[in-house]
Amino acid sequence: xxxxxxxxxxxxxxxxxxxxxxxxxxxxxxxxxxxxxxxxxxxxxxxxxxxxxxxxxxxxxxxxxxxxxxxxxxxxxxxxxxxxxxxx
Length: 88
Hints:
By secondary structure, this protein is mostly helical. It has helices at residues 2-6, 11-18, 23-36, 54-83.
């Protein structure tokens, strides 16, 4: 939103201005709020590092665990089909 408001002669700022919004005040407020957000900093060695939220990290870990168990589950399913007994 901030980038849209910064565009000179941009559509977003003109629509908001026509709607009666003080675009300059909104832009200042957005800039202030963005400044409050955490920032990632570091040397060039950090460029290749990807940061994920705890929720996404949990999802990726569960998916990885599921993939690690997949061959065992497939083997057990095949064994169950042969023997007629279920079990993992």
